[in-house]
Specification:
- The chain is 72% helix and 0% strand.
- It has one domain.
- The protein is globular.
- The protein has 220 residues and is mostly helical.
């Protein structure tokens, strides 16, 4: 929330720059590899598919793994995606991408026909193809921007996307361009750093109390 309210470009750039470090700091199996696929490899694949981009079932499965590993893990969603029809995934994703950048609502709706794909997962798909207009609906971004992460509806996503796009425009200049997805990643990274810092401080406090307790016990 503190970062979201700020317009200090230096702070935002530092938060965005720390994103890879924040990914690694979570120490989650395969997250670094999955994030590299999601952020670098998949966008290139999609934009190379002409005349109309689409997503394969395998790519959607990997994207879902990324989403669940970076956030809350719900293995059942992976099972749903694994059972989807290949042609349906291709058709739904193609229609969604062709709806951008003009109609984000339609793009989300085209994807949510797929079992296991709600607005949050749909946003992750759209963010790969059009990061400038369709950011990922992460819990951390929702907490910072909307003050909660309980409502994963299309309505809430459109509100989040609107606010992240507005913030991106506020931060952008002729020399520096921020996308809505840059804003989301910076907010996510800032939130992760804050959580890890708080956890570290708590562990230090517990260790200090245990040490003090042993010293008192030994002195008695």
């Amino acid at each position: 929330m503190e970062l979201y309210k700020s317009n200090d470009m230096k702070i935002w750039k530092e938060a965005l720059k720390s994103y890879p470090t924040s990914i690694m700091s979570l120490n989650k199996p395969n997250l670094v590899t999955l994030d590299e696929f999601y952020c670098s490899q998949l966008p290139t694949l999609l934009h190379s598919r002409l005349p109309a981009p689409y997503l394969t079932r395998s790519e959607l499965h990997s994207l879902m793994q990324w989403k669940l590993t970076r956030g809350k893990f719900r293995p059942r969603l992976l099972d749903f995606v694994a059972s989807l029809d290949e042609e349906l995934v291709k058709s739904a994703s193609q229609k969604a991408f062709l709806s951008l950048p003009d109609d984000i609502s339609k793009a989300v709706s085209e994807l949510t026909v797929l079992k296991g794909v709600g607005p949050a997962t749909a946003s992750a798909v759209l963010a790969v193809y059009a990061p400038e207009v369709a950011p990922f609906m992460s819990d951390e971004a929702m907490e910072a921007v909307l003050g909660h992460s309980k409502d994963y509806s299309l309505k809430q996503y459109l509100l989040l996307a609107k606010k992240l796009l507005e913030k991106a425009k506020e931060l952008s200049s002729e020399d520096e361009q921020f996308t809505a997805s840059d804003v989301e990643r910076a907010l996510w990274s800032s939130a992760i750093e804050a959580k890890l810092s708080a956890s570290s401080a708590k562990e230090t406090q517990i260790t200090s109390k245990k040490t003090s307790g042993r010293k008192r016990k030994n002195s008695s």
